[in-house]
Amino acid sequence: MEHLLRLTDSWDRSRLDGLFRLADAYEHGRGPIREGCAVLFFPDSSVRTRVTFELGVRRMGLTPVTLPPGTLDKPEASGDVASYLAQWADILVVRHPDITVLEKLASCDAMPVVNAMTDANHPCEVLSDLYSLSKIRNIYDLRYLFVGADGNIGRAWQEAAVAFGLDLTQCSPHDLAMPGTAWKGDLLEASSGVDVIITDGPGPFAQELRPFQITPEVLQAAANDVLLNPCPPFIRGREVSADAIAGPAFVGHEFKKALLPVQQAIMATCMNLT
């Protein structure tokens, strides 16, 4: 039994390559299946991650039971919650703002806990993106630029960079920089020669990040075959311009198709189905 809380916990290139092979198997309908139950905690606002987890669970042979994250916000000890649920369920998939809630659920090792997004990080999203990128490029040779504030998406890519040895730079106002990651404050300079540009929504920093919008001019400063990977939900005219999304650099909506097999592979790995 394993948990996925942070990519820096126990992940490396070997484990990532193994996860991708398992995701390939699920993508072609050959992944391991088993009967059981998965308890998922998602808010009503979740769209892509929730749909693909619920669908993936069903295709694996598990019965999904979905509850709101607020169900976990009560005085009962998280270890007791997990231990009771383990009498009927086989895995917990949790989206909750506070990563310490997931840590407490995992600490008793009653069953695997998968991080489906917290305010600290979003490992499933980044693993899915790397899987999609691996289909068209060598992910270990790419130069990645994250344009946005210090937040859960940026920190998830930071974790991936540490775990897998990726070349990652952040571009933002200095006050919004992530500690421990290479940083540049000039967007055109930061974009020069990069292979993948990643964006995130500005959150409360829309005014500060307005000069950091990805436009065709920014993309022209990057590598000739640069890929624009905006983390959804993105807004045209906010972190990315409409013409940047309409151009050839945008990875496309099909890029997120990988969420389904990758999240199945994550759950199978945590449940030791491999």
From TrEMBL:
User: What InterPro entries does this protein map onto?
Assistant: Asp/Orn_carbamoyltranf_P-bd, Asp/Orn_carbamoylTrfase, Asp/Orn_carbamoylTrfase_sf, Orn/put_carbamltrans
- Gene3D superfamilies, per database record: Aspartate/ornithine carbamoyltransferase
What GO annotations for molecular function exist for this entry?
A: amino acid binding; ornithine carbamoyltransferase activity
One Pfam family, please name it: OTCace_N
E.C. no: 2.1.3.3
Domain (Aspartate/ornithine carbamoyltransferase carbamoyl-P binding) spans 3-133
Signal peptide limits: none
Keyword annotations for this protein, in alphabetical order, are: Transferase
Q: Which GO terms describe its biological process?
A: citrulline biosynthetic process; L-arginine biosynthetic process via ornithine
Would you say which domain of life the source belongs to? Bacteria
PANTHER family in alphabetical order: ORNITHINE CARBAMOYLTRANSFERASE, MITOCHONDRIAL, ORNITHINE TRANSCARBAMYLASE, MITOCHONDRIAL
Q: What is this protein called?
A: Ornithine carbamoyltransferase
Query: Which species is listed as the source?
Result: Bifidobacterium psychraerophilum
